[in-house]
């Protein structure tokens, strides 16, 4: 490994870091959009493979269970192996799993591919963010890099809806899987050339096997509990049992991490006030965002009659505003304004955008009701996500970068699972109550069914508004207002993060 030096004798930053950012961004986009690109293709896959209504949810759940359950382990493996190696292995594995899914001839083959996507995604996603964390250490460059990364992370779900609609409508649902191969090959080729690791940034401690088992099974139980809540209800025995098991396992995990010499998740990563506030507020905000994607998709396709492609296009203003909020507002202000004064107002603006959707009616137009909400949600989430992601990985020791990055993904994944299960249950209950209150004789008229469904969406948006507002409150209260967005815990020196990635 050849290392260039500055006049002061310190290692110079990697001159290929911006090309590395492009590679990392491609990989991150692939992982994030995969959470929604399959949603649009699912009805077509269900018909093609003769999947029952009761089993179709497993196409989504298989991915989220593996991804959410293995994230902490994936981040730790990146710290052990080296992040470049974990990144490339994750890309290659994700591509092979996607090829398997695209060629699926039955439900079992498709579910296996989705679970494998989750496994390799759990290795890839923390490696991507931790590579970014250690590559960009200068304040202005770090702000710009995290602005781009944050925009992709926040907008990827909407991009997935658009891409899934185009591929499903004009080619075949299988290309919603095959398209990942293109992303993965390009990113893996770029990674071999432009991404490099430093051996002294690895955490060479032995793997915490007990902590790994407790964390993995606990996170799987938590995500599975929310999946069952959506299907069976919050009061079912299985749902309650999963939540009880998750709490017990994760509590045991926290205890073990205080006792072992080399913990899977050093508690210093999450007990820092800024990082803890960032993880919590990001997770809450994702509950609202996933609910927004879910119910706007229902409203536009089922109530307004939009095609999959037109539905995807309808989300473009949200994507554009997310990019503007992250790269133009968050990035420009991140080194001038305390973090909580970007995150708090950003989440609050997103909450206002969500509140507008509570006024939806069956005959509401896109221009007057949906578009203003998308603009506010996009600008708010974009502005908040950039400093939030930067803060969540700021001032960690380089040896902890992988697991700190994994915690960001855990927040997003668990938040998305909660958002899908909780808000879908709220909407279904509100819809049923609306119909029951009117006591229709016989079958419910089509017009009334549509009005009931939209009422359910509006109630769910109300819950999403409250949760997004809570994210804003947590950002205001927990995130340290005295430091800038790029600053981290006062307990860790700047020198600990200022170890750049250098060229071989």
Helix and strand succession?
HHHHHHHHHHHHHHHH
Helix and strand composition category: mainly alpha
Q: How many structural domains?
A: 2
In whole angstroms, how far apart are the ends? 4 Å
Helix content bin: over 70%
Shape field: globular
What would the keywords be for this entry?
504 residues, mainly alpha, Growth Hormone, Chain: A, 2 domains, globular, disordered N terminus
Describe the protein's topology.
Elements: H1 17-49, H2 57-81, H3 83-102, H4 107-135, H5 139-170, H6 175-194, H7 209-232, H8 237-259, H9 268-271, H10 273-303, H11 308-314, H12 316-333, H13 340-356, H14 366-392, H15 401-438, H16 446-478
Explain what this protein looks like in three dimensions:
With 504 residues, this protein is an all-alpha fold. The protein has 2 domains: 17-198 and 264-486, Growth Hormone, Chain: A, CATH 1.20.1250.20; 208-263. It is built from 16 helices and no strands. Helix 5 (139-170) crosses helix 14 (366-392). The radius of gyration is 22 Å and the shape is globular. The termini are close together.
What's a concise summary of this model?
With 504 residues, this protein is mainly α. It has helices at 17-49, 57-81, 83-102, 107-135, 139-170, 175-194, 209-232, 237-259, 268-271, 273-303, 308-314, 316-333, 340-356, 366-392, 401-438, 446-478.
